[in-house]
Amino acid sequence: MTGPKIARPAPPPDAAYTASAQSQPVRLPEQRPLLIILDLNGTLLWRKKFSNKMQLRKDLAKFVDHIIQWHHVMIWSSVMHRNMTTLAKAAFGDLRKHLVAEWDRTTLRLSEEESGQNVQVYKQLEWVWADAEIRRETGGKIWDQSSTLLLDDTALKAYKQPFNLVLVPEYESGVEVKGPGGSVLGQIAAYVDEASKYDNVSAWVRENPFVRDTRWASIF
Fold first, then answer.
1. Which of 25, 62, 154, 178 could form a disulfide with 198 if both were Cys (CB 3.0 to 4.6 A apart)?
2. Secondary structure class of 207 (helix, strand, coil)
3. For 5-15, how does the pLDDT look when each residue is reduced to its tens digit (9 = 90+)?
4. Is 19 part of any domain?
């Protein structure tokens, strides 16, 4: 999939989603498990195009161990199915068995023609929330905007549910951009931990979008 990205109409947030995200988040007595949806390339690792050469982001093993310990975790990547296994093994190692789902490009509801093109994709979270297998893998839990975070390096992918997105600084060409607060993944782990202490994470994220600053000191 080379060449300039082909634009596709972005699905807008619906009225009910927007209304819920605009409510006042309420702090809970204790942290609770969330559904954490992780992108791969550009977020957790960098993979060179047309090869299996890759580099893992700093502190990835610590991040994966922490997130899986506290939350229900799945992958949602726009990579082709044939590449998913390689990337998932590299990112998660033995902890891959604890993932509740691995979604690749085949889950993005593209036409047969679009699936092989460099088209803009959208991760519409209602597809995850309606999935019976994910519900079974998480003990029958019903997920929604109050309890889900999508970690991705591309904001446009979360256009329909923008306040469930943790926008991760892109890990491009295996080069980490330094910033305040220490390790990027260590900061994001701290941010996710704080979000999980509120009754409606979309409302909390709307008020507290992730940015790299000293509020989110790396926990690693």
1. 25
2. helix
3. 898 999 999 99
4. no
Task: Tell me whether residue 184 is in a domain.
Answer: yes
Residue 1 clears pLDDT 70, i.e. is over it: no
Classify residue 22: in a domain, yes or no.
Answer: no
Q: Rounded to an integer, what distance in angstroms lies between the CA atom of residue 66 and that of residue 61?
A: 9
Has residue 2 got a pLDDT over 80? no
**Contact by Cβ (8 Å): 220, 183:** yes
Q: Return the axis-axis angle of helices 184-195 and 60-70, rounded to nearest 10°.
A: 10
Span 160-211, pLDDT tens digits: 999 999 999 999 988 888 889 899 999 999 999 999 999 999 999 999 999 9
Say how many domains are in the chain.
1
Supply 138's token pair: 């998480």
- E strands along 146-191, which residues? 148-152, 165-167
What Rg do the C-alpha atoms of the chain give, in angstroms? 17
Q: For residue 145, what are the domain limits?
A: 32-216
